[in-house]
Amino acid sequence: MIDERELIMLEWDKWRAYIAGGGQGSWPRDAFEMVLDQFYKEDTIKWPDMPEFQLVAMEAKGKLWYKRFLVWIFSTRKWRLTKDYEMPCGMIIEKGFVVDGASIPKLLRWLVSPTGPLFIPSLKHDKGYRDNPGDKKKLFWDKEFRNDSMEVNGIYVLSYGAWMAVAGFAWTVWWKHRRNEVA
């Protein structure tokens, strides 16, 4: 098996051969693509089946025009599981569980969609935050989110960036659900 260092050196040799051969492309694009390839693994999807969802209607119907506009601007689409889903780790998420996907701030949704590459990992993360099966700590669910994200989509930069955001800014959501347990 080739170790990480040898893999990097093979990439270096390919790059040198490409340059020596006259390089039939633009070097900035090729350099960016080479860096991107180091963060992306094509053989990462090991999840045999995907959950089935139903879109939950937004609560805009029957409201005044400006209230419908506010719902459109400030609310997030939600999705309901239509049947039980077993995660590869064995965790079962029950039919009827409602998820909003990845909690991406609206200003960043042009970059990452809530129902994009972080959607499936956020399903387990949301379940862990809400129900906390096994009385795990917040850090456990955050790391599971990162690991699942890397396994599902293989985009390390996105997975680690989302993990840092969740680890740093999701405390209010975590404590809201823990207060509900006590009440």
Fold and architecture overview:
The radius of gyration is 21 Å and the shape is globular. The termini are far apart. The longest helix is centred in the N-terminal third of the chain and has 17 residues, at 4-20. The protein is built from 7 helices and 5 strands. The strands form 2 sheets. A 3-stranded antiparallel beta sheet has the order 1-2-5. The protein has helices at 4-20, 27-39, 65-74, 119-131, 138-153, 156-169, 171-182; strands at 53-56, 78-81, 85-86, 92-93, 98-99. The mean pLDDT is 79. It has 2 domains: 4-39; 53-182, no CATH class. The protein is mostly helical and 183 residues long. A hairpin with a 5-residue loop joins strand 3 (85-86) and strand 4 (92-93).
Average of pLDDT: 79
Structural class: mainly alpha
User: Helices and strands, in N-to-C order?
Assistant: HHEHEEEEHHHH
Helix content: 40-55%
What is the beta-strand fraction? 5-15%
Radius of gyration: 21 Å
Number of self-contained structural domains: 2
The poorly predicted ranges are none
Number of strands: 5
Major beta-sheet overview:
3 strands, antiparallel
Record the strand order, biggest sheet.
1-2-5
Q: What general outline do the C-alpha atoms trace?
A: globular
Task: Supply the number of helical segments.
Answer: 7
Distance between the termini: 54 Å
Helices and strands in order, then pairings?
Elements (H helix, E strand, L loop, with lengths): L3 H17 L6 H13 L13 E4 L8 H10 L3 E4 L3 E2 L5 E2 L4 E2 L19 H13 L6 H16 L2 H14 L1 H12 L1
Antiparallel strand pairs: 1-2, 2-5, 3-4
Helix pairs in contact: 4-5, 5-6
